[in-house]
Amino acid sequence: MSRVLLGVTGGIAAYKACELCRLLVKEGHDVVPLVTPAAERFVTAETFRALARRPPGDDVYLHLTRADLLLVAPCTANTLAKLAHGIADNVLTEAALAHRGPTLVAPAMNPRMWSHPATRANAEALRERGVVLVGPDEGETAEGELGVGRMAEPDEILGAARNVLMGTGPLRGKRVLISAGGTREPLDAVRFVGNRSSGRMGIALAAEARRRGAEVTLLAANLAVPAPAGIELVETPTAADLEREALAHAPEADVVVMAAAVADYRPAEALAAKRPKDTAAWTLELEPTTDVLSVLGERRRDGQLLVGFAAETGAAGLERAREKLSRKGADLFVLNDVSRTDIGFDAYENEVTLLTAAAERPVAKAPKEEVAVAILDEVEAMIGNG
Ligand code: CTP
Question: CATH no. for residue 149?
Answer without folding.
Answer: 3.40.50.1950
